[in-house]
Structures are given as structure tokens and as C-alpha cells.
Structure prediction request, 450 residues.
Amino acid sequence: MKDISAVWQEMLSIMEVETHSLGFDVWIRPMHPIRVEDDILVLCAPTAESKGEVVARYLPLLKRALREIEGAPAEIVIVSEDEIPQPAAETMREEKILEEERPKASDRCLLDPKYNFSDFVVGECNRLAYASALAVAEAPGQKFNPLFIYGDVGLGKTHIMQAIGNDLRLTRPHCKMLYVSMITFINEFIASIHGVHGVNNQSFRDKFRNLDLLMIDDVQFLSKKQSTQDEIFHLFEDLKSAGKQMVFTSDRRPQDIPDLDERVRSRFASSMIVDIQAPDLETRIAILQKKSQKEKKNIGIEELTFIAERVTSNIREMEGVLTKILFLSTLYDRKVDLAICQEALKDYLVQECDDISVDEIIDCACKYFNVQKSEVVGKRKNKDVVVPRQIAIYLINEFTNIPLSSIGSYFGGREHTTVMYARDKITSLINTDTKIRTAVNDIKAMILRK
Ligand code: ADP
Ligand code: MG
Prediction:
């Protein structure tokens, strides 16, 4: 990150345009930046009340402003003046202070009871992950330690990880366990260095070592967080040598997490590594069936298939669609039929492609691969432009309603068959080539963030 006060000045100018002037003067302008640590910008608000207001009303805007300036996502944490320990107040502006904006999951080990083994539908896509998680729950610290589960967003990583915890809670009530997301871990760790909330580094260390089972979700966020990586390394060594079970999840394999210390990477890589793939049609139908039965609603197989055929990539999204369908069915007071499914899905599809333009998609692909747009839409066939071009085509097909036969016109009048080839190529590479899968996901995220 650039100079912190310059960044803050730029953020102020953006916020001034984007917010109501009264809100800006009352809540935004009085803050000052304290520190940047591991890509997290810490802002200090004068009072607890103003901190609350900023977190509730302005945090997303602040994040967007920061992203605009930095060109990459970065976290923002708001603290209030009275949370900064007094004796050190003088040096505080030089010091690293952090406080997380979310409730502390780790203190209460917030496991969601609905994430259990019996509600997890097993298919080819997740069989190995399921079996390994079950084995860990049966004999923690013995086989498969650590267990490292990776897969795309919304495919059940958090569910299966928490299922281990929920299961052990019943079978071994004395098992000391902690579930924490990597973001929370990072924030707590940095706060502990500076004694925010009266947590010192020793009590932080004790808390994470005095465990039989440690679950850390989304470890890809360790990328670039040097000081936290050191801490994780030592934690890893201590728990491992004490025979304590660790479970990690990530959206990619250890070798694909960028900017990760080699020693941390090799520790992750030494885990039992299992992946979760996108579910096939049958599994999707089974998941829908299970969820609707849980809600005590019976949906016919035709309707279930209709939904499962249309929502393919992400189980979380599929659940969202199902919730809407069940809601409509209650609202109209009639059984779920195809008309209701259609109505629910119409919104879903429109929302997906409504305001995403072909140009935005091509721009994001170019930015990701750092290539010129003119090259990507042009004639050259070098590998460095062909991959971004094929991914852009794949994503245009996914995000918009533009027929395949017309997509070629955005790429110098390419043939329909070329467009189809590009789409199919990427579709198959996503399953076999992690680099491509990561690129597609990252570009998708860029597009959706716009
Ligand atoms: P991730 O952590 O991979 O992003 P989650 O574990 O949060 O995904 O899963 C998203 C949603 O999909 C959750 O509500 C979860 O219960 C549900 N889900 C995912 N996989 C399955 C499955 N195999 N069976 C039943 N529900 C699932
Ligand atoms: Mg998750």
C-alpha cells in the first residue's frame, strides 16, 4: 500500500463524492488512519458511537474506495479512540493496532449446528472429502493430520469442516476445539501483539495451543500476511508435535496460494489434501431434495430437476433459489410447480447478467492477465493472448444472454465454431487445470465486484 496518509486523503475525496455531505462531515472526516498491516488498513474513529455508525453504514463504501485506489481488495478495520490502550497512546500512530469488525467467533467456537454429517449429501464430487472428514471425527489427531480441504466457493468446505467439530462435540464432549476463519485469526493475532482488548500475545498463543482440534477456514487469506504466516508456522509445529488435530480449508491447493512462505506451504502440502468439486446433476437434485424435506416441503422430481439444471456452479446459490421458491409457494399458497420455479429463477438469471457488459468482462480478463485489450480482441494467436481471449469468451457466455453466434463479433468477427471451441476448452480446463480455474474464479470475482 502507498503512503498511508496519501491513501486516506484519496479515500476522503472519493467518499466525499459518494456520501451525503452531512454523513461525510459527521462520521467520515473525523477519522484518521493509524496503520497498514498485512493489507489491512486500520482507521480510528473518535468514539465508540461513531465507530458503530461507520461500521454499519460506510464500511462497504470505504472498502470500495480503498480497492479503487489500491487496485486490489484490501480489508479495513475500524477502531475507536478508547479502544487504544492508554499508556501507549503516544506511540500508537507508529504501532500496529488491529481490532476485528466481526464478533469474535473463536471465543465461543461458533459452530453452526446445521453443518453436520447427516445433512451433507455425498456424491462423486465430495466423496473423498467426506470420508476423510469422517475419519478425522472418528480418530482426531491420528489419521489425516492435518486435513486440508480445498474447492471453489459455495461447495461445502465450511460445512464439512464444521461437521467434524459438531460430531466431536457429541462423541467427545471434553474435546477442546476451536473453529476460526483465517481473517479472524489474522485480526486477533495482530490485535494480540498490541494488547487490544486486553488480549496479549501470550494469551493468544495459549488459546490456540491449548486445543485438541483446531479448524481454520479459508487459509488462502494468509497470502502476503508475513507476520501471521510466521505465527501459523509455529502453531502448526506445536500442535503437530503434540498430536493435536488440525483441519484447514482453502479455495485452492497449497501450491496455488500466492505469496506464501515456503515453510508454511510445505506444512500445508504435507497434509492429507482432498478436494471438493462442483456437484453433478444427481447430487444437486439430492441436495435440493434433502433441503426441501428439512423444510417439510415436498417438491416433485420434475421441479427439482428444473432447478438443478439451471443453478449449476454453487450450492449456496442453489439454496438461495430454493428458499425463494419455498417462499413463493407459501405466498401463493400452492404446491411448488414449474411456474413458481420459473418465476424464482427468472430473477436469478436476470440478476446474474443484467448489468454486466461484454466490455467489462473483456477488461477484467485483460487486467488479470496484464495484456492489451486490442490484442485480446485482435487476430494474434500467441498463447499469452489466447488464454485471456478464451476465458473472456467463456465468461461472456456465462454472464450474458448473448448468443454464441454473436459473441464472435466482439473478437474481430470470429466464427461461431471458434467461440464454441473456446467455451468448451475452458469448461474442460476448469476441471483439470488449477491455474485456469483460479484465473476464471478471480476474474469472475473481479467482474462481480464492479
Ligand atoms: P464453502 O465453505 O465451500 O464456500 P459452504 O460450506 O458454506 O461452502 O456451503 C455452502 C452451502 O451449501 C451451505 O449452506 C452448505 O450447507 C451447503 N452445502 C454444500 N455442500 C453440500 C452438500 N454436499 N450437501 C448438503 N449441503 C451442502
Ligand atoms: Mg466457507
In short: Confidence is low (pLDDT under 50) at residues 86-108.
